[in-house]
Amino acid sequence: MGLCYKLFRADVRPHGSEGMDVEGLGKLARWDRPPRAHVGSGGFDPWFVGTSSAQEASPAQPIWTVPEIGALPSNTYGRLVRRGRDLITATYAYIGPEVADRAKRFAGNNLACSNCHLQAGTKKFGIPLFGLFGAFPHYSARSGAQITIEDRINFCMTRSMNGRPLPAGVPEMQALVSYIKFLSTGVSPGQLLPGMGTGKMPELDRAADPARGETGYANACVACHGPDGAGIRRSLPTTDLGYMMPPLWGNDSFNDGAGMARLITAANFLHFNMPHGVDYLNPQLSPEQAWDIAAYVVSRPRPHKAGLEKDFPDLLEKPVDAPYGPYADGFSEQQHKYGPFAPIRAAIAKLKAEQKGTPAPR
Ligand code: HEC
Ligand code: HEC
After folding, report:
1. Ligand 2, from 225, 264, 269: best to mutate by most atoms within 8 Å of Cβ?
2. Residue at 360 is within a domain
3. By Cβ atoms counted within 10 A, which residue in 104, 295, 323, 353 is the most buried?
4. Per-residue model confidence as pLDDT tens digits over 148-178
């Protein structure tokens, strides 16, 4: 148990997450990819460690596991949480652009939240939705203001889902929030779980290359996501059953204001999650392949979100990989889109230091 515990602690080492996430929680809750020691020592994964070993390891650091939705009673609360889970995994069937009730057409595409928030928001480094409820409300650099969990969901509604916001009072929003809250059951205030976000792999010191990525895409992705990135529908000719393989670009995809349209987010998501089925313990794409393929995906056409220039009112807080201006640092949109990012970070650090009236560290 001592050994397991040590490995687990290694896994939860936080690191600075500059540029990874701009919604606040990410600033606190990003972890390096766990050391390979995990795999070498029999694929140990803190995810699967039960409570008893946790107690043996250290009563002060309980190991958390995803709560079991099937164990909820069939009462009003249990039904609400289950409905929230369904909204995550079959979003298109409840609030998609083709549902019968026009008033419920909130999403603008036929994606499901769980196409990106993998395994209904429970997969480590698959942008999980667990353990984050207590971090809201918090400051969002994107809006330059405090945001609630409802506001954060609506960022994904208007960007990843290319739709319109869900009003706070509608039952669908209440169900989504209840499910996300349920996924934080047993997480104490301020506790940071391992596996948040998309993970973090080393960056390239060159710009990521969409042309090389196109070749990688043809090898590793095209069989599922298609040569035109349009994915595979479950029921042709309609999309009412959503996608078997979700689209990566084109009209029915996320828009250019979405997190997945940013290179750092997309590349890490690919490295730790694609081709479908891989996870952070056994990635298949090398970091270099993931950067180049992500560059190809973000270079493809997708819906445009109006008003993006108003994002990140403090431009020094804008993520280095935001693919749209304006920027405070003088680097081109091209370099913000494909990197390399280290020179941009250095320029921003310098500007921040100047703002504080102190000379920049060299
Ligand atoms: C196209 C991919 C995609 C889809 C679809 C999507 N999201 Fe997201 N979501 C993201 C990304 C990327 C982030 C930011 C993660 C990061 O920065 O590491 C995010 C962040 C979030 C967060 C905040 C997580 C945190 O760590 O603070 C919530 C809550 C959320 N999404 C809810 C939803 C809901 C609900 C839906 C469906 C209505 C949805 N998302 C659909 C990609 C997506
Ligand atoms: C074996 C089929 C398969 C392969 C190969 C595959 N994917 Fe996926 N991909 C999926 C499925 C299925 C999902 C949705 C996951 C879910 O809903 O649980 C997905 C989700 C995604 C998403 C997030 C959802 C969206 O619509 O944007 C991205 C981005 C993505 N894949 C990119 C890639 C890239 C790039 C490659 C090649 C490196 C790749 N995938 C290889 C099946 C695959």
Report:
1. 225
2. no
3. 295
4. 999 999 999 999 999 999 999 999 999 999 9
